[in-house]
Amino acid sequence: MLTDTHTHLNASQFDDDREEVIERARQQGVSRIINIGFNRETIPTSIELTERFDFIYSAVGWHPQDAIDMRADDLDWIEELCKKEKVVAIGEIGLDYYWDTSPKDVQHRVFREQIRLARRIGMPIAIHNREAHQDIVQLLREEKAEDVGGVMHCYSGSWETAKLCLDMNFYISFGGPITFKNARQPKEVLTQVPLDRLLIETDAPYLTPHPHRGKRNETGYVRLVAEAAAELKGVTLEEIAAITSDNATRLFGMPAL
């Protein structure tokens, strides 16, 4: 009953064996997948996956690294795609101060526009946040993002910031880093996040969990994330799978497993 709430199966890293990767995920107990389309190239291929596989859903949005390339008609396109039954969120959107590919003011504008779109159509949002914790919280507050809520994807911040996000109707999602021996902060934050606001993900092909670290990540490895989360929370793998899948059902408005 595992749900991978954030993956990139349409990435070029899977071009040679995509169907095999998806089958391996199914064999690991992955019942549902949310694939992310985040720019002009990846949005169409993410939608294609939802049309080929009944257990794959999609989020569509504009990544902050690509913010400088976003046009007004792209926002209209995202709004139109959100009418599709299997598009369940706007994302991944947010701020990225690590990669110097889009100016901060452009990132802010594109982020605000997509939050406003989400509020207008009643769609949750999936947040990308890299080295921008304070500004993410500020913009979410200013744009009243609590009206729709969403998920803090692959959370890497402090518990203090996580509490602010929880107060704004957000779920906190964890990926491969919680399996790393030296990842003290995400493990500590996970132990404090309420079970009913917890999600798991892979972000495949990135952030591969132990013991496969250094290799390509796969959606099936969400089981390793679930195992680590279960141990940190003191519950069984079956319980963490059911709880996080139920949380995904509630947040994204998907049919229950």
What would you note in describing this structure?
The structure is a single chain. The chain is of the alpha/beta class and 257 residues long. The protein has one domain (2-252): Metal-dependent hydrolases (TIM Barrel). It contains 9 helices and 8 strands. It has helices spanning 18-27, 42-52, 72-81, 104-121, 133-142, 159-167, 184-192, 222-233, 237-252; strands at 2-7, 30-37, 56-60, 87-96, 125-130, 150-152, 170-174, 198-200. It has an 8-stranded parallel sheet. Strand 2, helix 2 (42-52) and strand 3 form a beta-alpha-beta unit. The longest helix is centred in the middle third of the chain and has 18 residues, at 104-121. The protein is globular, with a radius of gyration of 17 Å. One of its GO terms (molecular function) is hydrolase activity.
Task: Detail the topology: elements first, then pairings.
Elements: E1 2-7, H1 18-27, E2 30-37, H2 42-52, E3 56-60, H3 72-81, E4 87-96, H4 104-121, E5 125-130, H5 133-142, E6 150-152, H6 159-167, E7 170-174, H7 184-192, E8 198-200, H8 222-233, H9 237-252
Parallel strand pairs: 1-2, 2-3, 3-4, 4-5, 5-6, 6-7, 7-8
Helix pairs in contact: 8-9
Protein name: TatD family hydrolase
GO molecular function: hydrolase activity
Organism: Paenibacillus hodogayensis
What is the helix content?
A: 40-55%
**What is the mean pLDDT?**
97
N→C terminal distance: 7 Å
Total helix count? 9
Classified by CATH, the class is Alpha Beta
Give the gist of this structure.
It is built from 9 helices and 8 strands.
Pick out its properties.
TIM Barrel, single chain, 8 strands, 9 helices, eight-stranded parallel sheet, 257 residues, alpha/beta
